[in-house]
Amino acid sequence: MASRFSPSVSLLLLAALSFLPHCAGAWIKYTEAELSLAPPDWCPEADALVLDQTLDCELTADGGWHLEATGSVRIKVFTPEGKEYGNATILTPPAYKLGKVTARTITPEGREKKVKSDQMFKEWEYFGEDNESRLYVCRFAFPEVSEGCILEYHYTLTSEQVSFIAPFYFDHPDLPTRESRLSFTIPPGASYNYCHLNSGNCEARKSLDDVVSIIGTKKRFTLEASNVPAVQDEPFSPPDDYLRPMVCFLLTRYQNAYVNLDIATSWRSALESMRTWHDKAIGSSKLAPGIVEAMPKDEPRRTAAALYRWVADSVALSGGRHCYEFDGQVDDWIRNRRATGAEKVLLLKALYDRAGLDSRVLLTVPVNQGAVIRDFPSLAQFRASLLELRLGGEKIYCDPTHDRLPFGALRWNYQEVQALVVDDQPGFVKLPPGAGTSELVYDVQGALDEAGNFTGKATVRSSREFLYSYQRRLAQADSAGLREAFVKYFFPCCRPENLVSLTLETPAGEDSSLCLAVEWKKDGVAEAVEDELLLPVNCIDPQEPDLLPDDSDRTTHLFFSFPRTVRLNATLALPPGFACRETPFRAEGACGSLAYSLAAEPAADGSRLHLSREYVRGQRSYPRETYAELREFFQGLSQADHHALILTREKP
């Protein structure tokens, strides 16, 4: 397994051992027992084990509030597969700066091999759909990685954003963890609330103790866990934030010589930077001069749509779309027509305010990245900002981050999620569902040869949902990239080298659908047995079915991508001399919002087959209690898909 650290994990990947006798960044003294350690009884098949992950955070008021953190991670390698953890990646979350990083390998004989500083590569990288998240990354490789060695690294983090402390996870995304510890020290004048999230999972998997101690005039939170299993890798699992036990800290009060503030709403101070940027944009003479004034005063919807299009299309996305990522001065991003996602939302709100249109900023989490925790609205959980526009009694939700997204449309991963309103009276709203059904339609014309090989052409049409999600990456890809993306998102049962031709038809207008024309070939579609061909009903279905393994001990809900309908209509010419004389085949099934139907019907002369298949998934998630019922549904679908039609060679 390759080493992976999710953005949220890497921020507090490291826990705190402030109570251990070593200063920040000092190497942890290893023991002979650790050098000879074998996989413990509670994880006997582990390829590697996190000996300890620690993070020590301290809030200081020296010239203004800021956060300093030091962390460490130690990993014990057991097997040849575990050696892959010698390639390390540290992702720095938004609003934090990564400082010094040191790393070393302790060989099984106890020799020390340090990673040289010039072998640590630090740069900005983009992640997520359409590269919407930008994170600072440090990558390096440990030297002399072998079975039995210990991998150790330390790092420092700093931040001026002290209103929220991002979640600390007590488990590891890949490996079992022997010990996981966090400490957070705050000075007089500061007050924080803290909360365990997903604590039910935590209590079921490990013991977790929290301690608040007084050290002089300071208060210290110390939280720890031990013998933590690795995250279970279950098919169709939801994002980490739905499952993993973690702790969040939220500022409720701070005061010093510079500021004395009670935060009655418990989160307002974290939004000061957003409001500052917004106010600067309102006052800027460079803010779209003349655009608002040219708008018709008696057509507010037309004005709102035109201003949205200007921000979405005329201001390029620079950096990520994280709701707290601000890159430069207001005049700079207005003049250069480049802004982060958060800046584009604030720019649109400033234009709406100038035009006298009522709008509010919303903070939310895309459904494929995590879940909003309403009872503890820590700002650390929010990943993106949107805008709610109120025209009369209508609420219109705007996402100006990317071009091509129509006014008032939301992409699938922002639909039906909770969002926090940025207002003097904060509260939650639920974003609406999509306006229509997410559909993929395949119209296929093809032919079989007597060896069972297929060649054909297809037109692939999609609803606007797919257009929003995939058109950008398809349109910007080169020839090879277009083929890879097409296979990944639309033809997973094919391989790029089997595509003969592929054409993307760029839609015109907001209501257009995505359209692709493809020609491809696939060998062995039918099995040749003497004078017969055995042809499965789903022989040319380009989409892989959502199959569920036998898993009676399922621990998580099932999480799919957005709800969708996939339709296939195909006409298949049979090899010369072959005919299908079977009666028409039909099958169907349903389970709640899931449904399928299949049909295969020979032409009157037996020389062609007409195939149709429809699969509907009306929800994006299903409770684990329904797993057995869902598995039975998918087994029925699989059996129908694999029903073999017999094509017979006609005798002269």
Characteristic key phrases:
652 residues; eight-stranded mixed beta sheet; C8orf32 fold; Jelly Rolls; globular; alpha+beta
Describe this structure in words.
- There is one protein chain.
- The protein is of the alpha+beta class and 652 residues long.
- The protein folds into three domains: 7-24 and 37-260, Immunoglobulin-like (Sandwich); 268-430, C8orf32 fold; 439-649, Sandwich (Jelly Rolls).
- It is built from eleven helices and 36 strands.
- Mean pLDDT is 77; it is low at 1-24, 201-207 and 254-270.
Concise account of the structure shown:
The chain has 652 residues and is an alpha+beta fold.
- Pick out the low-confidence regions: 1-24, 201-207, 254-270
- Strand fraction equals 35-45%
What overall geometry do the principal axes of the alpha carbons give? globular
Tell me the number of strands. Answer: 36
Rounded mean pLDDT is: 77
> How far is the N terminus from the C terminus?
58 Å
Rg of Cα set: 28 Å
Which structural class matches the secondary elements? alpha+beta
What's the total helix number?
11
CATH architecture of the largest domain: Sandwich
Kindly state the percentage of residues in helix.
10-25%
Largest sheet: 8 strands, mixed
Counting structural domains, the number is 3
Q: Provide the spatial order of strands within the biggest beta sheet.
A: 5-4-8-2-1-10-13-12
At the fold tier of CATH, the topology name of the largest domain is: Immunoglobulin-like
Using the coordinates above, name the CATH class of the largest domain: Mainly Beta
